[in-house]
Amino acid sequence: MYRAFCRGFAGLAIAISGVSFSFAGMLSNGPLTVETNDTTGTVHDITFNGTHFFEYNPIADFGFQGKNNPTLELNQSNAATDYFDLSMSGLSYSGTYDNVLDIAFTRTYSLVPGQNVLRVETSFTNNSADAADFSYFDIYDPDPGATSAADDVATINDRFILDSVEVGQASLASGLSVLIGSYDSRAVVGSGNPTGNWTSFFSSGNPDANGALSAANRLQIGLQTTLASGAMTSFTYDLAFGTSVSGTQNEFIEANVATVPEPTSLALYGLGTLCCGIGAAYKRRMKKNKDA
């Protein structure tokens, strides 16, 4: 059964590379467990079927960049700096990107019921006086099976079209995989060794390892958008996990299948509505005759 809970650790700190921070958010459905960093609002660790993907050498970062301001602001899972003055409520983190612009945002983590899929939903509001052009992005470095901070696990990465959307996948030779993607048409996905800055990621092409094995491979996703003053938008992407390449892809697709009533259900609903209408008309006619 799907379950979600948050844990508070008063005074508990995790040290990685000499940096201390705490984590307090957790989601679990049994096979898949996600821990978030309550300082930076990033993913701290993901465990799937007992294998840690981000416990060591964690790179699970998110950030912003303004179109007219190339300065990058990035919250990192293995750092203690919070650029966005985050506040936490459950598994939602709210903050502001205020480098020249004034973009309020709320980033929420959840597990898709019945699937081994982490969903990350972010809403944005432009509180700037003028229209705002900005980029928003995430980068992940999966190290499945790492047993120490010295490990840097190589993954087989590829970027391709799945169910009409662009996705990136990182896998081990055993088939253990993680896939990132979004059904938002604005999404840009990368799956390989990132080069250059985030401006080039959006403008000149996202990385694609084309099935190559490398410890430098990453998974990236983001969007560029323009918001009028006072306008709002949102962006959602999924991280799907599985023990095989195809199984992971199926997890992603199934998590995004809309629930459509079966024809029998629709027929019953229509019949019920018709009966209710006939009954109401009969009551009105009887009341009219009685009053007469």
Automatic annotation (TrEMBL):
Signal peptide: 1-24
Keyword field: Signal
UniProt KW Signal keyword: yes
Superkingdom per UniProt: Bacteria
Protein's UniProt name: PEP-CTERM protein-sorting domain-containing protein
